[in-house]
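Standup notes
- DV: blocked on the single-chain target, sequence here:
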Amino acid sequence: MMRRARLMVGRTLFIWPLLGCVLLASLLTTSSNLAEDAQPAEAAKNRVAKNDAALRIIPSEAAVAIAIRDIGQFTQRGDKFIDRTQIKVVFRLSDAYRMALTFLNLNKGLDGNGSAAIFAMSTPRDVNMLVMSVPIANLADVASNYSIPVAELVPGRLIDRQGREGNKVNSWCRFVLRDGDHLLIGGDANSLHSAYKSPSLAESLPQHDREVLAQDDLLFFARAEANREMWASGLANLDRQVAGLSADELTALQDLKAVLAETDYAAVGVGLEDGLSIDAIL
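- DV (later): unblocked, structure below
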């Protein structure tokens, strides 16, 4: 059974990690407005998928994924939210994205207002299993970052960078593959092939779920079957998140655990346009 919830967050109580390597957060609040099942039809119409960019770059067969719908907009809204709330953070997700680009030597040709994602097609046992999807603005410039002839960057063609640049490349970014207007980068050839062949969440999710998630700035996704051990661990962790909770919050916690135990996947969208909002589809 799939349940959908919309939370407008006023004061966050805690964030629990559902997955070890990718943050899939569920926030319980003292001033939540939680509505189970589908949103009213009129509200759904107001969230028609005008821009499902994040959904289009997450493979439906991915085990875990995190995506940014619009990098530029996310940076602006995220910085504004952090400045307004004075939340203490070690680093901002937008900073982590820029650090990743520097690490990958991707200095030219990317779309600063495109969508980006990092995901694993199976339970990630090491960093080489991760795939990063970055938006292409200028194909020739993107190719020049890795000294790859632009003619070789055709959709679906896997390119092994090992030995091309005269030096041994980092194993995590050894392979690249163009997928439309995005470049897939990773250390496992099979993962890139699987990502390219897989339908996207935009193609596979029910229409209502796409409408709910399409306008969120940040999207987390996980398939239960692909993360059986981590999923079980996440459910067990819920039992330890009870200190200081009210009766209503304890009830919400148990309801959440029951839903997660039955669901095939979880998708959590975070919106930053008007404060902090969370869309959870379970």
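- Follow-up: The two ends are 8 Å apart (CA to CA).
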